[in-house]
Amino acid sequence: MPVTAYDLTGRTAFVTGAASGIGRATAVLLADAGATVHCADVAEKDLAQTLTAIEDAGGTAHPHLVDVSDRAALDTAMAAAVSASGPPHVLAAVAGIMHSSPVLETREEDLDRVLAVNFKGVLYACQAAARSMIDAGVPGSIITMASSAVDAANPGLLCYSAAKAAVVQLTKTLAAELGGHAIRVNAVAPGWVRTPMTGRHDANSQRRVEAAMARISPLGRVGEPADIAHAVLHLASDASSFTTGQILRPNGGVAMPW
Ligand code: NAD
Contact 37/54 with Cβ under 8 angstroms? Predict the structure, then answer.
């Protein structure tokens, strides 16, 4: 396979959660690969930093300040992206939030918020991107962000894990429905990755994670955002042209309980 299979020159990508962590690394890498990248997030200042990183490296990016759980706002952002750069060839639906509480203490509003961002937000982005791809007749690649949390029982992570399990089912169902339009749909399910999301855990829990990783991960380390961005690039590019409905697990070799 020639390296040019990873070249995204002339293509457009829409990345949610692009202001931080995995989403930022993904937006920067897709731009490095040649794509014009539309970066969506709720965090305005951090989003501006992503834009600067892409533009300083000679890439092209557009910001969209949008809450992915707001379907109308997401549709408006996608329409603006299409009008600026044409239909997206790639969607990376990365935006997500963490929530932890024991099942017996889980409140309805926590469940609703996590499902709204981590599941409905992915669904709305997939719908908006896929409709634009189909209308324009362009082949596309949609990448959703699941988690190794779906591979294990994680105390405290019911809301998060349930939303990510729903993302996995969304991914497989969409792959089955959209294959006839030459649209591929795959998920990335990272293990523990060093980002602001995981950094918000306290120092003790961070130490426990690092100790567990050193003990049970074949690679003996936690992931970095770039590790996951490269998995997304693979799925976004022609290098994965016969891959759809799959879950790619960049997790250091194990699905680790948090
Ligand atoms: P992060 O907190 O660094 O980044 C998440 C981004 O999503 C932020 O920029 C945030 O502003 C944005 N976001 C949150 N709610 C939003 C909303 N309603 N609308 C638009 N944007 C919103 O986290 P991260 O670690 O980079 O996580 C990115 C994705 O990867 C998430 O879906 C997360 O569940 C998943 N993931 C992370 C890990 C990990 O260990 N870090 C592991 C598995 C999966």
Answer: yes
As a whole number, mean pLDDT of residues 131-152 equals 96
- The model's pTM: 0.95
Q: Which of 160, 163, 222, 249 is catalytic?
A: 160
User: What is the percentage of the chain residues whose pLDDT exceeds 70?
Assistant: 92
Contact between residue 50 and residue 27 where contact means Cβ atoms under 8 Å apart: yes
Distance of CA 41 from the midpoint of ligand 1 (Å):
10
67 lines ligand 1 (CB under 6 A): yes
pLDDT above 50: residue 258 = no
Residue 225 confidence class, pLDDT cut points 50, 70, 90: very high
Q: Which domain holds residue 178?
A: 12-248
Domain count, the chain: 1
**Ligand 1 in reach of 252 Cβ (< 6 A):** no
Q: Which of 93, 91, 108, 77 lies closest to 35 in space, CA to CA?
A: 91
Say which CATH number the domain at 84 has: 3.40.50.720
Assembly ipTM? 0.99
Mutation test residue for ligand 1: of 14, 15, 22, 256, the one with most atoms within 8 Å of CB: 22
Beta strands at 12-16 and 183-188: parallel, antiparallel or unpaired: unpaired
Q: Whose CA is nearest to atom 32 of ligand 1?
A: 96
